[in-house]
Amino acid sequence: MADRPLPARPPFSHRPERRGLIGPFGGRQLLAGAVAIVVAAIVLVIVTTPLGTVGVPGPGDPQATQFALGPAPTNGLRPGDLPPEFTITAPGGAKVPLTDIDGRPVQLADLRGKAVWLNFWASWCPPCQSETPVLRDLAERYRDRGLVVVGISVQETSPANVADYARRYQLGYTIASDSTGEIFRTWRLYGLPTQFFIGPEGAIRSVVPAPMTETGAIAQIGAILPGTSSGAPSSGSPVPSPS
Fold this sequence. Notes:
Layout: H1 27-48, E1 67-68, E2 87-89, E3 95-97, E4 115-121, H2 126-141, E5 147-154, H3 159-168, E6 174-178, H4 182-186, E7 191-192, E8 194-198, E9 204-208, H5 214-224
Parallel strand pairs: 4-5, 5-6
Antiparallel strand pairs: 1-7, 2-3, 4-8, 8-9
């Protein structure tokens, strides 16, 4: 029997497996992966960076900083100055004494002979809230030694809100509401809280444009109590104000 011819077969050829720069990955794939990693890193930095700037507190004041209501002016009330009296403009235009949350007049002239810690604050101000327990405790502790603490609340929604705050946190010291900010401007301030420590003679001994710690407040109070010297603690500083 005659042999049948074999069917035609394709020619045999072998091509080596194509390999990338690193394993199975080619140059384009590696470049795309690197770009994706860089983009992810940039997004991570953006979403984890705090908004605004955060100041680093100095070694002498590790507490919260003052809440600024405007730019700092150039000049202001300084130690040795006689401070202005607490008067506000009535609806009819007349100047009348500031009153506390119980309706009683608050006048510096009535506090001569006392050590006065004057605290400008607001219930909506976080650094003011942080120092409220310090004022409350030290006002009670030093009351019998001649200290009078006066809190001037600035630009609250209403005097009733100030009274509610004082009642809620059992604040036993004098608190008055400067609803329009008139006293705040008369005293040439720009931030909250701001502290004035006034001696028995009625002059400013020290100004602290920052919230108080208990240790810092005790040092300031000790320097203005009746019978002490008239020198102000070195931690006090002048408050800028318009010239």
